[in-house]
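Re: beginner question about structure tokens

> Can someone show what the tokenized structure looks like for a real chain? I only ever see the sequence side.

Sure, here's an example I had lying around. Input first:
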Amino acid sequence: MRCLLLSALLVLPSLARSADVTAYLPADTDVVVTMQVRQIAESELGMKIGKELIKELLGSSKQATAAVEATGLDPLKDLEIVTVGMDLDKTDNPRPFALLEGKWDVKKVEDAIAAYSKANPAKLALIKVGEKTAFKLPGSLQHDTMFGAVLDDTKMVIAGTEKDLTAAFAAAEGKRKPAISKELADLLATAKSNAPIFGRAWVKGKLGELKLPNEKLQAQVANVDWATAAVTIGKDVSLLVTINTPDEPTAQLVSDLLGAAIGLLRLQLLVVVEDQPELKPLNELLRATRTAPSGKTVLAAGTVKGQSIEKALKVAAAAKK
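And the corresponding structure tokens:
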């Protein structure tokens, strides 16, 4: 319990410079994840495998990968902060909103995107959104298409719809007020962290369809209103998840049930790891994770060795060849 409480000290006011993202986020955003790219790159593990690590983080979206590739920017050098917003009601076909912050020459980046579009028309097409220059990122299906634009010399955006892209243009001009829920806005204002990867989610009423290995835990997650996750990267990688419940008895129950579910998931993963060795770091993290109640909240913390992640990335890279 003491270790978990010490880990909770990570969730402190952050001094990192960032735009006020609330005005940029789509109205239906439930989850916001912030990645401090420079901090990841300058960590001990990041200096060894930073390029591969950032590539994996961005690689979950082919459109995001194509957008960054098209700009000609080096994520480790030119990007400082990436903020991702997601809608929990659209997890089957996720099209996250991403605000990329850094410093670049707008004309140079726009010229690079235009050249990329000519060379890769199936990956990126130049378009106009209103009177603004933008680009379209086709997906494998029509509804997978995403949109992007360079807003200015410090901000770039990738959005799931033209409507969300138009809203981002308005936010950059100071003409849009925050449209996200008051609950999420309050959580973003109060839950801060110095961790290089930090996620915050307002989940009340959003977890009914979540498939969990324990029916009792399935019933109790309906009582959770918000959760945060802080990922610290040094020589190793540590995770701290904080879950808020209505009262202390519920927190104790959720902690016990979550601990049991993690144990079951780890046993199930042991079988999968035999065929997918790149998942070994996840198994190691689950084995190290401990849960404990702290007042009305539940803390879950674990660590995975940096060497394990290095090996996993090499296995994943070899499998793609």
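Each token stands for a local structural state, so reading them left to right follows the chain. The two ends are 44 Å apart (CA to CA).
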